[in-house]
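Hi C.,

You asked whether I'd gotten around to modeling the 125-residue construct. I have! Everything is below, sequence then structure, no commentary in between.
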Amino acid sequence: EVQLVESGGGLVQTGGSLRLSCSLSGVTFDEYAVGWFRQVPGKEREGLGCIKSPDSHRYIKDSWKDRFTITSDDAKKTIYLQMNNLKPEDTADYFCATSWWSGPCLPLDHQYDYWGQGTQVTVDS
């Protein structure tokens, strides 16, 4: 059974940083992508970026390239989302998701089959 568990959310001041973690288990695909998404209650979920295994190709949407970074620790089967210079508008629930994937990954939520429960990030002004 594929499972994803996010952690690392919390309350941070404007300009601060957080590193979210996404721990994977049960993934047996030979190629897969892990995407990061966020959602503000009442609004549509938006994709932030993704990373591929095993080639480590990664993609971050232009809107966040200067502040967000996605990395992975294959030994720990954990994907990280490093967020710097956080702003109040970054307040949201953050999710990771995975699916079998061939080729460069994209954070298109309808193409991901397995989702974590999310972790909440609040940026206080």
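If it helps when you're writing up: The first strand starts at residue 3 and ends at 7.

Thanks,
B.
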